Amino acid sequence: MESGRIEVLASYPRVAFTYALVQVNLEIDGNLATCSWGRHAYEVPPGTHSVAVWYQGGRLSTGTRKEVRVEVEAGETTHVTYRAPLYGFLSAKLTSDGAVPVAGTEDSDRPSGRTGHE
User: Fold this and answer.
1) CA separation (Å) from 88 to 21, 36, 49, 64, 111?
2) pTM attached to this predicted model
3) Cα 55 to the chain's mean position, in Å?
4) What are the structural domain ranges in the chain?
């Protein structure tokens, strides 16, 4: 069976250069990896996958963990973008071109497949 890819871009505002001092936590279907800021690609089987991204930034970084469910097709790449906030006490943003609505969330009434948590 042909696999698909999840490509995650983790970035932060250029003026918030202190983010360069911390690593990004990336979790796909419960498998945790710690990596640098930037673009990372992972091979996955076709289907629905859970993607979570966050960083450990101290006591004020309360809204940094974001999670989205994405649909991955065989031979295709689903893009996920994580943007850290300018200030650690603000909420981060996570979007995807393959997001799947989750029942019971504010995103559940959106059309399937285009926007995750914003």
Assistant:
1) 13, 18, 27, 8, 31
2) 0.80
3) 11
4) 4-109
